[in-house]
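Reviewers of the previous submission asked for a worked example of the structure-prediction workflow described in the proposal, so we include one complete record here. The input consisted solely of the amino acid sequence. No template or homolog information was supplied to the procedure at any stage.
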Amino acid sequence: MTRLELIINQFINFLHVERRLAENTLTSYQRDLQQLLAFMQDQQLQQWSQLSTTLLRAFLQSQHQRGLNPRSIQRQLATLRHFCKYLYINQHLSTNITLNLRAPKTQRKLPDTLTVDQLEHLLSPPEDDPLLYRDHAILELFYSSGLRLNELVMLDIGDINLTSRLVKVQGKGNKERLLPVGSKAIDSLERWLSIRPQLAKQACTALFISLRGTRISTRQVQYRLAKLAQEKNLNSKLHPHMLRHSFATHMLEGSKDLRAVQELLGHKDISTTQMYTHIDFEYLSNVYDSSHPRSKRSKKNHD
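From that input alone, the workflow returned the following structure tokens.
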């Protein structure tokens, strides 16, 4: 193992142990840094101290030239910023070389969501099958509380309070938040918990488990949701984040309270909430027309 590879591994281990980042996030960081490592080797550089702002710009430019879209390059830049900060703190760099780096702008894309009718169809009562009861509880909890995939799979039985209708979630950056759980999700969870002991290994504390009796994986959840959507003849390819988007969208359309939705989603910055949710534009137009003093047209203009 080269010195370059060793420090990458130390950084990934730091993110895993100290920051407790999700496996999917760690995999993404590892992939981005492997590409940077290949670039460094092409440049015949053997120490991270030889890295510079100019070289990072050249690396990002090479990613653009090979067809990587702006959003992916933005994600890579986020990885570089975290990594270079780590290098600076651990004295592998004399300065933080990412401070003046900018990623290409991306056009905001509204997230895919399900309509209320589609969700009603998707959340129809399951057949008498333990795995279907589990999957139904997963769907209900996703949509009820707007959880991220990793937040859901890491839930333990003790994190759910059926009486208070609350779930304790460990979010990004190890931040904890307490979320309400809807009555339909509570009903579904009670049904799942009544049959969970038949499948679970004795020492397993996970709320959702696989056929092996151990904590369900993120990949299993993704597969089961996609399979269920196909069986229900939904046109959209269902993934867990679509349920989170649907939760946020429907909450925002119903409450018009962006701050409350931000808290429920666990977003640090409200601009993230604005990006992941969208309000009915007709509603906004009507509010504007009825509220803004300069928007109201005089009666004579219509005569």
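Confidence is low (pLDDT under 50) at residues 279-284, 298-303. We consider this example representative of the routine output the project will generate in years two and three.
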